[in-house]
Design a protein that fits this description.
This protein is an alpha/beta fold. It is built from 15 helices and 19 strands. A 7-stranded mixed sheet has the order 10-9-8-7-17-18-19, covered by helices on one side. The protein has a 6-stranded mixed sheet with strand order 1-2-5-3-4-6. A 6-stranded mixed sheet has the order 11-12-13-14-16-15.
Length: 465
């Protein structure tokens, strides 16, 4: 008789008990470990299931989910946001001074919840092992076998998941549902504080308009030939909307752009999660001048400075492609606070004015996020670029051409919450060389994409002498 058959015959009852214990444990792990927990102002459901493609999945009903391949053990870890309690969330935000403090608070609370979930998982596994091993008859031996099987399985899952878990997998996550088109909606919790009770109706509005957005951007064709010696693309207020970044890339490719100037608010709250979505800036492969806006932060500015094609102006002057550009970051960009209070704007007005007047020659372009900081320079400079208002505007005052690019990200989530919609907008500046080999702004193209009404607008304005 072969050894395997002899061994099975001798230990048949033990093998049956172990097999049944394993089956019951796997069944319970797959279907019975989910539970809802309260994380400060949020109600979240934690769940675990068997999987051949192990991932961590974060679900935001009804707008979709984000997931990443974070570990090697054959299980999916799921976190579902079930509810948000407005009053408690408002209290928490009021007590928190900056985004890092908020993250640390949530991390400490989450650890306690994970410990409770791990304990629940262990108890269910032990119970499943005992039940499975006792199906052919309960005894002290069956209970011991069930407990031992449970300890082996839970230890393998704990140790395997812990030692292979890679949180950096979320640096390049996958999105499904509406989040596939707008991963910046992960910031929805912060954005909806004042209108949390209206989110249901707003989601309906968002859902009805997101589906057509990308197809309209893809339809964008090169509608204009190069009309100047140098093309400068002015954008602003992307607000962490990757659709806005795609819009910029498409415009740059379609209109022969030589230089990009971004007047700030590329993110909503300047958090590291948002910073992870900015890598596509490098895809432009163009010189990119950036100043921080009131929704950016030192974290974001440091991230932007890592890109080879990007020049960050905090209170600086740069000469690039024959243009001299002076700029100053928004005062709020110096802080990691969610809503910093800026009291002395005159200090920054004076700093920018001294930066410009100390130059031997007048700069070709001055950039600031808010118009108010650069106001004292109107009449002394040829071109002033700014953003912040989310409304496109071009005007001339005392010989200065003032351009507000509006919002290249359609105001982020705020834009999707407006019934009439906010267009994605940029300004394309056409410079020509004069007889003195100096660049002069001759034409400004106003480019807008309306995501809801299907309109693509290209309006051309001549710059008066």
């Amino acid at each position: 008789m072969p050894f395997s058959t002899e061994f099975f015959s001798k230990h048949k009852e033990l093998i049956y008990k172990i097999a049944l214990a394993v089956l019951i444990i796997l069944f319970l792990l797959n279907f019975a470990v989910s539970d809802t927990y309260k994380l400060e102002a949020f109600e979240i459901e934690l769940d675990l299931s068997l999987s051949t493609t192990p991932s961590t999945i974060i679900k935001f009903p009804p707008i979709g989910q984000v997931f990443a391949r974070t570990h090697l053990t054959p299980i999916d870890l799921r976190l579902t946001l079930e509810a948000i309690h407005q009053e408690r969330l408002t209290e928490i935000i009021a007590d928190v001074t900056d985004s890092e403090e908020l993250v640390e608070l949530m991390r400490s609370r989450a650890k306690g919840i994970l410990d409770l979930f791990a304990l629940r998982l262990a108890l269910i596994t032990v119970l499943g092992g005992i039940v499975g091993a006792s199906l052919r008859g309960i005894s002290a031996n069956s209970v011991l076998i069930g407990v031992m099987v449970a300890i082996v399985i839970i230890s393998m899952l704990y140790v395997g998941t812990y030692h292979t878990y890679d949180l950096t997998a979320f640096d390049d996550p996958h999105f499904e549902g509406m989040l596939e088109a707008a991963p910046w909606m992960v910031g929805l919790i912060q954005e909806g504080l004042e209108n949390i009770e209206q989110l249901g109706s707003e989601f309906e509005l968002i859902a009805s308009n997101m589906s057509q957005l990308f197809t309209r951007i893809e339809a964008l064709q090169p509608l204009a030939q190069q009309v100047g010696d140098l093309q400068v693309l002015h954008l602003s207020d992307i607000h962490n909307n990757p659709v806005g970044l795609q819009f910029v890339i498409q415009i740059a490719n379609s209109f022969g752009v030589d230089l990009v100037i971004d007047t700030g608010d590329i993110t909503d709250y300047g958090t590291p999660l948002e910073g992870g979505l900015l890598d596509r800036v490098e895809k432009l492969e163009l010189p990119y001048v950036f100043i921080g806006g009131n929704h950016d932060s030192p974290t974001i500015i440091d991230k932007m400075a890592e890109f080879e094609n990007l020049i960050v102006l905090e209170s600086d002057v740069v000469e690039i492609n024959g243009l001299t550009i002076a700029g100053i970051a928004d005062p709020a960009a110096e802080s990691n606070e969610i809503s910093p209070q800026i009291e002395n704007i005159g200090k920054y007005q004076q700093e920018l004015k001294e930066l410009v007047t100390d130059l031997e020659t007048t700069p070709d372009i001055v950039v600031s996020h808010q118009l108010g900081i650069a106001d004292p320079l109107i009449g002394e400079i040829p071109v002033l670029l700014h953003g912040h208002t989310h409304t496109f505007n071009i005007s001339q005052e005392e010989g200065t051409t003032i351009i507000d690019a509006g919002t290249t990200g359609a105001a982020g989530l705020r834009g999707l919450q407006h019934e009439e919609g906010i267009p994605y907008s940029v300004a394309l500046l056409h410079y020509n060389l004069t007889e003195d080999d100096e660049y002069k702004l001759d034409i400004v193209d106003i480019i807008k994409l309306h995501d809801r009404h299907g309109g693509f607008i290209l309006e051309r304005q001549l710059v008066e002498e």
